[in-house]
Amino acid sequence: MTTIAVVGTGLAxxxxxxxxxxxxxxxxxxxxxxxxxxxYDRPPLSKQVLLGKCESQDIALTxxxxxxxxxxxxxxxxxxxxxxxxxxxxxxxxxxxxHADGVVIAxxxxxxxxxxxxxxxxxxxxxxxxxxxxxxxxxxxxxxxVVVGGGFIGAEVASSARALGHxxxxxxxxxxxxxxxxxxxxxxILGRLHTDHGVALVTGVGVTGLVGEEGVREVELxxxxxxxxxxxxxxVGAVPNTEWLxxxxxxxxxxxxxDERCRTTExxxxxxxxxxxxxxxxxxxxxEHWTNARDMPVIAAGxxxxxxxGQDPMAQPVHDPLPYVWSDQYGVHLQIAGxxxxxxxxxxxxxxxxxxxxxxxxxxxxxxxVLAIDSPREFGRLRxxxxxxxxxx
Length: 393
Known about the structure:
alpha/beta, Enolase-like, domain 1, FAD, FAD/NAD-binding_dom, oxidoreductase activity, acting on NAD(P)H
């Protein structure tokens, strides 16, 4: 019997398993996940979970019906430590081996930490359900909160902490939050969103140290200032989980390198989700968005099955999505589509930049992205325009 191993049980891993079954694969299917918890959705961690509005069962990615459809072996709490591409044999923690005919790499990414910083109580990253529970426990007590990094995770954590009544400061290395992703005008709008809701925004400085004995007391900035804090949340990006592939021959460079069809450099091995750096018309991208983790595994599963069935893999669809991300902060809903550049012009389409609005980015007169706050209908229309332009480029 043919065996396919899916390494990773986050959204990308579960979606890959679903896609394999939907494409008619009826062989042995094994899902290997480092976390002991049943698969769960990550976006609520920085919002509803921190606020105590939902628990683990509310964000589950599988239920009894889906598990019955998948008919898979679940190796939860089990980490893959090596991969032999010639035999497609996985080495699991403890030395156990798992031999497979095909492998889907969906090991995701882990939160980046501040290098060289002491390990103190009250210092958190937010990537897993356990992370969210530990942070929620600290946020249940009075204390000042410093969020390092003004990206989406940092902004959502700041919003949640503020809603819980904390004094919150965001420290952002750039002059404005999300400056490189959204450009100066939109970054300024998001910066004002923080300050309008009582969050202090400290920009243009880095963090050089954490002060405290057992628990954190202060955050030391590169300009010498000290910010008092009982809770520190580090949201400075993520690192793809590829170390276990060292020596495997699977090419990695800030992620597992794949072609447009999610195939790695080794036959019978594909990759999808946050861990995958895929080739596309824009060069090579590794996207840590929920929609990419939802959609990319479908392409990966199709490519893998084509290889196993002796079909022409070049006849399979390519992964060339229109990037899309959303964020909920301070009671407003932010939506972004496309790949706007820092120098692209932001053009207001409806509403006001001081309130709800919809806007487009333009580069050399052509639409390159869409941005909206609390304007879902107009965003949908503009996103369709962007998708039409995207498809003919």
